[in-house]
Amino acid sequence: MMTRQITISHNDTHDMYDVSFERRGNATVYHIAPNVNSNVSFPRQFDIVKPDDSEQPQYETKDLNKEGREIADALWQQISLLPPQFSGGKEKV
After folding, report:
1. How far is C-alpha 89 from the chain's CA centre?
2. Per-residue pLDDT of the chain (93 residues; tens, 9 = 90+)
3. Which residues on neighbouring strands pair with residue 7, listed in sequence order?
4. pLDDT at res. 10
5. Beta carbons within 10 angstroms of residue 58's beta carbon
6. CA separation (Å) from 8 to 15, 41, 63, 90, 93?
7. C-alpha torsion angle, residues 18, 9, 27, 69 (rounded to 10)
8. How many helices (H) and strands (E) does the chain have?
9. What pLDDT sits at residue 50?
10. Which residues pair with 57 in a beta bridge?
11. What local confidence, expressed as pLDDT, does residue 83 receive?
């Protein structure tokens, strides 16, 4: 599993997150965790699932507050900008 660090901006702060990904069936699963030195209010383990046949990711929001959902959206925006070799997805032709 490849791990990459990404930085997002949220509420005028910059926070780093560790993102690893794996392929499962017809989807890519991104495992996200705040950097070990981070004190951001976000789950220590969070998954975003991106089905191959959809442009929209799927993730569980029941344990996230409003700020957590905003962070998850910002994380997805950053992940979606990564090239295929770093994002685990298939290259678009």
Report:
1. 13
2. 678 889 998 888 889 999 999 988 899 999 999 987 777 788 999 999 999 899 899 998 888 999 899 999 999 999 988 877 665 555 444
3. 16
4. 83
5. 12
6. 6, 14, 20, 23, 28
7. 110
8. 2, 4
9. 92
10. none
11. 75
Token pair 């700020």: residue: 67
69 contacts 2 by C-beta, under 8 angstroms: no
Tokens of 18: 């560790």
Instruction: Copy the structure tokens of residue 61.
Output: 């929001």
Bridge partners for 31 per DSSP: 20, 47
Cβ-based neighbours of 30, under 8 Å, separated by 6 or more = 19, 20, 21, 47, 48, 49, 50, 57, 79, 88
At residue 42, the 3 state secondary structure works out as coil
**Paired tokens of 63:** 């344990």
Indicate the DSSP class of residue 32.
E
CA distance 42 to 44: 6
pLDDT for position 93: 41
